[in-house]
Amino acid sequence: MAIDTKVQITRLAPTFSLGRWLTFLAVFGPGIVVMLADTEVGSIITAAQSGARWGYQLLLLQLVLVPVLYIVQELTVRLGIFTGRGHGELIRATFGPVWAWISVSGLAVAVIGAIVTEFAGVAGAGELFGVPRWVSLLLAAGFLLVVVWTGTYRRVERIAIALGLFELVFVAVAVAAHPDARAVAAGLAQMSLGDPSYRYLVAANIGAVIMPWMIFYQQSAVVDKHLRPEDYRAARWDTVIGAGVTQLIMAAVIVAAAATFGKSNPNASLNTVGQLANALTPFLGTVMGKVAFSLGIVGAGMVAAIVVSLALAWGFGEVMGYKRSLEHHPREAPWFYLVYSVGVIGGAILVAIVPNLVSLSIAVQVMNALLLPLVLGFLVALAVKALPPEHRLRGSYRWVVIGAAILTTGLGVFGALRR
Hints:
By secondary structure, this protein is mostly helical. The protein has helices spanning 2-27, 30-38, 41-54, 59-83, 87-95, 97-127, 133-150, 153-164, 169-176, 181-188, 196-207, 212-224, 232-259, 261-264, 273-280, 286-320, 334-353, 361-370, 372-385, 395-417. Helix 2 crosses helix 16 (286-320), helix 3 (41-54) crosses helix 13 and helix 5 packs across helix 19.
């Protein structure tokens, strides 16, 4: 009898393990999508400029920002799951409509800068192969509109992940660049904080990691996906994995740029996609280098364009009260789809009219750093006040979160203002 019981337990164990994996896969998505979008075109340009100008000195910052990024985005998961409300809606309910409008206004500013950067990157990748700018923009905008207007949340999420995974080509480029291990180790131990241009890039890198639209998107995505309290653990793992992947990509771009332009021409300009391709792909051959780099840039730009435009549509919907879900047909939620479409079409038109907007990418990331007091202030305040008592920030972890928010905000703002 004892043997039978043991056999039954043994047979149940794999089933239980499989069930846990299936639960994780069902929950998996919002974290990895928002993190892949985090490594968007502007972030890649910022990382490349960091490696070209300062070698490996900003590599350590990418590693330090992994736990900070997780701490910030985990709060959005917690707020979404345990309140059932998006970020803008929760600010309105907790602090009133005025503060909600202030928050969503900051979101709109960040989204405008981001969407322009994404389309500029996509257009630049097309120009590497002789594709006219307007053709690339038309195809990209059309694809983004079709994906969201005709898809459910899960379908949009899967397409976004597929696009974002192309960014992993930058890891392959970093490996192909054969970085010198001693130079990497020396760079990790150096920090030129006395140099204003170094501090400016520190601020840009912080702004490239923590952006207002990320917070709005992940919290709203958690709600739209109908994640429940029992999904909380898996959702946190989704965020952990995403934080590691996005910072790995950022680190890879820094390493590749430092091993190439950082060694031979540290003062070179890296403000266009063509210059970036030439800087990061010398070891892959001309054709393969262009193809690999273009896949990475287009993947980064497209997944980020989906995320920032949806964050804008969700954010305004949460403040204004219109229907806002990818589960709704466009006829049921016309304002949601209209705001999304305006973001996509407006960004494409602006990039078609004004050339070389990629050069604004670092400035956009610095602007994100200047918005951190507003963004992280609201996030921490909600985690302290709006959550059910058993899930609020408390004890030592509360002070870890507050300390990380203050330190990150202070370093970002200081670097931006003391250039």
